[in-house]
Structures are given as C-alpha cells and as structure tokens.
Amino acid sequence: MAAVVLYMSMSLDGYIAGPNQSVENGLGDGGERLHDWVFNGKPVPDDLKRGTPPLQGANKQVVDEFMSTGAVVTGRGTFEAAGGWGGDHHDGVPIFVLRRSQPEPEWARFPLVTYVPDITEAVESAKQAAGGKSVMMHGATAARLALEAGVLDELEIHLVPVLLGGGIRLFDGIPPEHIELERVRVLEGDGGMVHLHYRVRP
Amino acid sequence: MAAVVLYMSMSLDGYIAGPNQSVENGLGDGGERLHDWVFNGKPVPDDLKRGTPPLQGANKQVVDEFMSTGAVVTGRGTFEAAGGWGGDHHDGVPIFVLRRSQPEPEWARFPLVTYVPDITEAVESAKQAAGGKSVMMHGATAARLALEAGVLDELEIHLVPVLLGGGIRLFDGIPPEHIELERVRVLEGDGGMVHLHYRVRP
Q: Which of A71, B54, B94, B130 sits most deeply, having the most CB atoms within 10 A of its CB?
C-alpha cells in the first residue's frame, strides 16, 4: 500500500551524520560509515543509480524499495548536503524540498525540484505526484516536522552496527508526547545491518 | 561464553528514561513505557523476581538470560533510582556499584552490594564473583565508562517501539572514536519489541 515512508541510515547511538556537517561536508566527519552498507566504503556518488554497487539480500531489498518510490520529500539541509542528488534522486521522480525562502540560482536549476514552505503541503503534493506509489522521505528535519504534523506513515531505519559518538541525531527536538510505533518488519542484511520498519500509530 | 553484557531497554529515539528523572522518579516522566514489555504496564516492582509476570518467546528468553548472570555492575544513579533492587537484583548475586564516595547509611545496608570507585576494578571484581557466568551491566553511566575503558564485551538492547521525545539517552558522551559492533542476534518479541545483541569489536 502506498505510504509516506522515512528512509534513514542511523548508527545504534542515533546519528545520521558525523560532527561538523555542512554543505561541503555533507555526511559530517566520518559520516560515510553510515552508508558503507550501500556503497561498500566508496565515496557516496552524485548519481545514486549509477554509483550503487551490486547489493544482495535485505540490503538490496530495502534499496530497491526506496528506489521505487514515486516522489521524494526532503529538508533543505539534506538536499543541499547531497548536492541535490544532481537534480534526480532516482528515475526522474519529483522532489519536494522544504524551504521558506526562494532558492539561490544554483539550487533553482533542477526541473524535478519543487520548493515548498510547509511539510503538510509538501507531503500532499508528493502523494499526488507519486501516482499511487509510496513517497520517500529523507532527512532529520523533514522527519521531525512530519512527525509533528502527523503526516508520516512509516519509518524504515537502516540500523548501522557502530557507535558514532557524535554528530547529528535523527530524533532530536521531536514532540515530548510519546509516539507509538508498530513493528512491521525486521530484516538482517550484510555488514551487520538491521533494517527496522515501523508504522506510526495514529 | 561468559561475557560482560550491557542489558538496557531503549526507545527507538535512544532514551532509557523519561524527563525529570531522579531517585524519587526513577524512570523519569513516562519512562515506565520502556519496561511495559517486562511488566505488562504494571509499576516496576522492587523485587524483580517475584514481580515479573509470565513472559513468552523472545521477551522471556532475554529476561531469563540476564536473570541468570552471575554478578551485576551498575552506576550509582541507576542503582539508587531502582531503590537498590531491595538489595538483591536476582538470586543473591553480588552487585558492584560505581561511586567514589562512601555511601550514606541507607545505601550501605545491603550485604550483596560492594561500592567500587573505578569501572575497570568493578568489572574485574564482578567477573571473579560471577564464577564463570556472564556479568550483567546496567545503566547509561556504567555503559559509557565501560565503553571508554574497553571493558564491555557485548550489548543487548531491548528496542521499544516508541519515540519518547525526551529524557536520558543511553549513548551520550561516549568517545567520538567510532566503536564498531558485530551483530550477534536479533530477536522479535511481543509488543513490537526487537532485541538486538551486538559484540563490541576490540
């Protein structure tokens, strides 16, 4: 069933990027460790589709899953840190980026990208654009806003077997009311990966 | 094989207790949610052995495991917040509590408890006292110090399907050098639980 799903690689201590993260240092210091399971330790390529080495088992299954979504919603920080994925995350699907201001020319040149100020509007637009497929959400800010607004359906956490000790946490500043989750699927992949899939309870 | 194993219930967002944790409010506001899988939503009893309702499957397996360890190492905060487990965590095994100062009389009355200033010394004493069984470690401070000192062998995280949104994190202030883990076992229990067992790589 089509859903709005957050896909994120996270260390066991909750980090999605290392310290000193910036547009120039997208994954933060040492943060590429969190993506080794996808890229076999190679630098994260601009073009995800061409740069991904052969995967197998559960790791392949979840990558195939998010690379089959019909639209992407992301925060500005994540988008810019990833170089805007060269303007195409996968398969030419529309990308909705959260930001309140008009983009600078370098960020305005991507035909697939729409800038939206509000998470609810971004999710609604993405669902319509996805044509019945699921929507991939990405980034900590988008996740936080979507959880607050109640527009996130599911989470797929790629749990990396490492303690990073510092950096940017996935879950920071989310509402203090408990958000209950329903465990949907647990998959074990190469490299000690555990892929955890939860549904957000209404 | 006997090992020093950290056993902790943790929310998906990394918390082991809710906000406003204190000796009087041991699990913090709403923190009992993290132990529902053991106590079926009832208050956490002083006597773990008598208070635990019937469990089954993976939840039973991991509780049986930590209730079969031969010694306990814990930080002072965790120990006092738990009321010192009435002086007996399980089966009368020795308990080693980290603290630098001499205990007040109310905390000095437990024959099974030894106060030790140093984590390495606490772990060494616990291993000897455990008589070939594994050592249960408990609490965020003990975990942090043991990871720093390199005396923690394994982690068993009882991952609770909830976002707590605030409180005390298990992994805070650990060294910024990456600590690599080896996935040993993943078990799915009732109530959406996922029990993650990792070995700390040397």
A: A71
